[in-house]
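I'd like us to work through together how a protein chain folds, taking it slowly. We need material for that, and I hope you will provide a protein of your own picking. Go ahead whenever you are ready, and we will take it from there:
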Amino acid sequence: MSNLVQRTITGVIFLILVIFAIAFSKISFLILFLLILIGSMYEFYTLSKKDDISPLKIYGIIVGSILFTANFLFANDLMSAKCFLPVIPLVIGVFIIELYRKADQPFTNIGFTILGLLYIAVPLSLANYIVIDNQVAYNPNLLLGFFFLMWSYDTLAYVFGISFGKHRLFERISPKKSWEGFIGGTLSSLIIAYVVSLLFNELRFIDWAIVAIIISVAGTFGDLVESSFKRSVDEKDSGKILPGHGGVLDRFDAVFIALPMFYVYLQLVQ
């Protein structure tokens, strides 16, 4: 089976599962994003260990999960802002635990443990405020629109890059990415933005078009950031759980940069 066929089959199945989980209920949304967070942080910490760095893998994942859950409870008006208080001593705990590990690179270990939280847990936590409207009701439309545009750009940029790619976008980091793929994916996602505006009228077409451009640019940088990290530890993929795509981190690397930018834009226009 070719990589393109594998990538397509995996992508379609994964797309259906993600759409269902986001659209079904706030609980299925919570479960889905916790699984994404756990899988991504696990792969991130595992990759860093290949460079003789030893972050607090399990501890970091637990803190990240608590941080996301606290944001979920606060966004849904189930708890006050006091639900964030446990996160403070837990983060301080990273420094204290490292004192007793007798590791060769304690500062590096601390840095990578906290980086996993900042790079993965914090961006994903913002999704809680995107799916909750002003009446504290669960409304997945904006997040669904975001993912439709994200996946459309990712797929079409891949197709345009395979078909017409000649000029490298960032050869030092990702030799396969091309300007043709980026431009083709961006222009195509603007067309998809019109369809998204018909499906999810919470935003106007012009807003969805701007979001499409934000996703194209920020998502590309997100992919390049993860590629640079993998290249530094001499790895092609972050994992093997998703045939044709690699790991969970590979599938959501663009989201970690694009989702915060989407959140910022929503705060400006709503």
The chain has a mean pLDDT of 90. Residues 139-270 form one domain.
